[in-house]
């Protein structure tokens, strides 16, 4: 293990700035759910059922908006992507608490749809500014930061809502999110290699080493072509040519799928004359980056969302049986603390581990929580599960950044976030069905079983992607 990797990363002021701004800018998003729930359930007196619908609508907006905002990020850059989001959150969240319930649902959907794509910007920036082993370290560090935000953010939102009012809390969320977006617009972190200036990127690893890590991390095995980069690995064909470096072969320019897409957009009349087959081919070209191996990582992300939320809900239900639901923070502290330790250890490792392997270990290590009783025993057993949490998320994010070329990485990270959001949205109600009909222990078993099933699906998708490549 090489713990000096963290020092190398943090010596770069660009990486320090990106991680710090990402840390602060994530707080409003994590606090929005709990403050919205308290507003609908207590301030409006509509109960937690209606509050659940409101948060589900917001989550749906985020899941739909993340890939779209990521695609805009790829094409327009950080500042042009964030400008409409900054305006939207600054206007919508202060207005939402004063709307009738039906209009409130429309407002929170739009707020989720236009939420700041913090995840895509931070991960895309880290993917550009790091290489090789340092990229694994960077994603591990960001996973730890993200988990810390998810621990503190909801509690901070609840404090603001309790001390002031839920309407004030939602207003603070909107204005602070807008402020974070403005800071990101000013700092304008790079999302393309062509935007890098100043000191060299930490870890001067070659494209071949990046490809080797992609093969190794995705659990693919097989020979590595030393002349290929991560973009080539994605499709097995020629690397995508970006606008940053014009390429010419003989007298004919190399035309990328992106160039074809842009030409189609600039000529709407011509596009309308395309046949159904041509339209389908164009659509396939737009999603050429979505290989079986990338889809496998998305299955892992969905499994992680289901397991995380399902485990949390089951722990709350188990402690509620003994009247200790107020002490659930102790279990979460042990769980998240172990995750931070696991993330630090994984980031210092010299070798990458497949996200499928880590997700399987994460699932199996969660099962003992269904076999024990008592607050402190449950907290102690949760440490085993926590050790694999941050490494799983770091490995999955790093794999996406290696398999998808820079030109599409924002969109790919958006879909990654949507997959995890969808898993989180499904995890709570589905685990709740088993908790209500059987027992809290059944909630753990359900979450583990579904996550292992998705790992199997991911393995099949990865194998199919390897055969096609």
Structure characterization notes:
Residues 280-469 form the Major facilitator superfamily (MFS) profile domain. Its main location: membrane. It holds the Pfam family MFS_1. It comes from Micrococcus lylae. Keywords: Membrane, Transmembrane, Transmembrane helix. The chain is mainly α. It has a two-stranded antiparallel sheet. The model is unreliable at 199-212, 218-257 and 267-271 (pLDDT under 50). It has 21 helices and two strands. Helix content is 76%, strand content 1%. It is globular and about 55 Å long. Helix 3 runs antiparallel to helix 4 (47-76). The two termini are 33 Å apart. It folds into two domains: 1-190, MFS general substrate transporter like domains (Growth Hormone, Chain: A, Up-down Bundle), CATH 1.20.1250; 208-214 and 286-469, Growth Hormone, Chain: A (Up-down Bundle), CATH 1.20.1250. Strand 1 and strand 2 form a beta hairpin.
In short:
The protein is an all-alpha fold.
List the secondary-structure elements in sequence, H or E.
HHHHHHHHHHHEEHHHHHHHHHH
* Biggest sheet architecture: 2 strands, antiparallel
**Total beta-strand segments:** 2
The strands making up the biggest β-sheet line up spatially as 1-2
**N-end to C-end Cα span:** 33 Å
CATH class of the largest domain: Mainly Alpha
Number of domains: 2
Shape: globular
Indicate the percent of residues in helices: over 70%
Number of helices: 21
- Integer-rounded radius of gyration: 22 Å
Here the CATH topology of the largest domain equals Growth Hormone, Chain: A
Specify the CATH architecture of the largest domain: Up-down Bundle
* Content of β-strand: under 5%
Structural class: mainly alpha
Regions with little confidence, pLDDT below 50 for 5+ residues? 199-212, 218-257, 267-271
Mean pLDDT: 79
